[in-house]
Amino acid sequence: MYSTIVSVDTLNQNLDDPAWVIIDCRYDLADSNAGYRSYLDEHISRAMYANLKHDLSGPPVTDHGRHPMPTPERLNNLFSTLGISHDCQVVAYDGSFGSVAARLWWLLRYMGHMHVCVLDGGWQAWSRSGYTTEQLERSNPKTRFRGEPRQDWLVNIDEVISSPRLVDAREPTRFHGEQEPIDPIAGHIPGAVNHYWRNNLDAEGMFLPPQRLKHLFHDLYAGIAPEQVVFYCGSGVTACHDILAAVHAGLACPRLYAGSWSEWCSDGGRPIATDHG
Question: Which residues does the annotation mark as catalytic?
């Protein structure tokens, strides 16, 4: 079973295995329905679709960021609808090099399902391979998924500032406060360091080798135990890409501040740091 990354060749070899569930997570922040339209146009054979806004996010309960964490009940219902059983292999992919698929990867692990991985290179790698695609909208037989959340993997807004190591996954210009194209205020949480999620990938959008990733995260953690490190981003999505890369490197799973910058900067009175001007 695969628990971090899987290649297009391996997925193709298992494409007809009913124990493998494939989920298309393509999404466009500027148009929440664009990913679904792309799915209908063409997708990996047997793939079902999950929408970041409607499926992988939920009404705010534990956090009030742009993409709030779904409740455990909503996640159990979603995974049941997608046909995910506790012994199946799940493969998630998107068109943005794993930045959204990693959110589904994290959510499944959070609910106790460890046999989940992200397709290395995503839709672009599959398209380059010439492997089979289809336009048919798929559905799987409904299952009865019943997972329990790992609440210790989450950090709330009041806990985050005391984290011994806080890592921001956004691009450097947003981290430094030079520009902010999405949220109302630019900058970062005081004390955070920056590790842009795209730095987990090579020039073709493929994950770096585990040993190289391990070296990057070893330097990033600066002696702090992985389980004590907290990742955040704009809305708790691309931070999961950093967490995926760290686990792929063989390190223990760090924690997630799901509310992320979108919650922090909109909560009046929270301190804000910039490195600009």
Answer: 233
